[in-house]
Design brief:
Length: about 270
Amino acid sequence: GCVFAGGGQVFVAPNGEPTECLCQAHLYCLLLFLLLSVFVEEDLGNVMEDCDCVYTYTVPQFHRDVQDETAPEWESLLRVVDEAVAHHHTSLRPEGMHRLTTLPPSIAGMHAITTLNIVGSGVSTVPFEIGKLGNLESFQAYMSYSLHWVPYEITHCQKLRDTSYSTRALYGNHKNDPLFPDLEQDKGPIPPVCSVCQEEAIATDTVIQCWTMIRIATDTVPMLVNACSEACLRTVADHPGQSVSKGHPALHLGGFGYKDVFDTLEQMPPK
């Protein structure tokens, strides 16, 4: 920093001692930065490797990250989840989250979990099994910059009251309005059963995929819907948290056109 005295400039080093040498003051700052970098390098790892697919006005594609299942962080996460299932833990905050790209399907067994914290993670895909967490009250995903959407299954978490995301990283957010992946060109992940009714089995050739924006808990978030029928799509369209912005259809296929999913139903082959 610097202060002005008698028309002159006196530079103040971080230790509070004044110096008239700009280079010396900068050297102090540089050394301080290098020291801080050593201590926080692990925490900055995720931030420094963020994707930029929501910061350019082009149609993004789904992240196809494959989790390294030999990574110590993944093996540790599996153990932590198993312990949470066995001992009915109420909160989960895995270590080394910036090395993870997803969560294991086994989270479905964490029936006692009320708080799921993946802040600062590298997670790009939340598993469909999150909808099985019937007691979940808090889902914290702030600074998980590769997380651009969540599955519609999260709406089945009836007790969810508190959420946090990095808003600018979400598809369709109100701040920088990034596009959604085009589901006609780039199908997203497909669960074994319908996202909505949670009963009917679906497959690549029968699923009806679409995007929607729904306010759940404390945030409006983009959700990928995998529906088995028009009836289930109507259920999504009637969701009380449904949020329509900028004139887009409530349920659309993404891309540049934001094609209304209901306009495409008659073009689909019969089941």
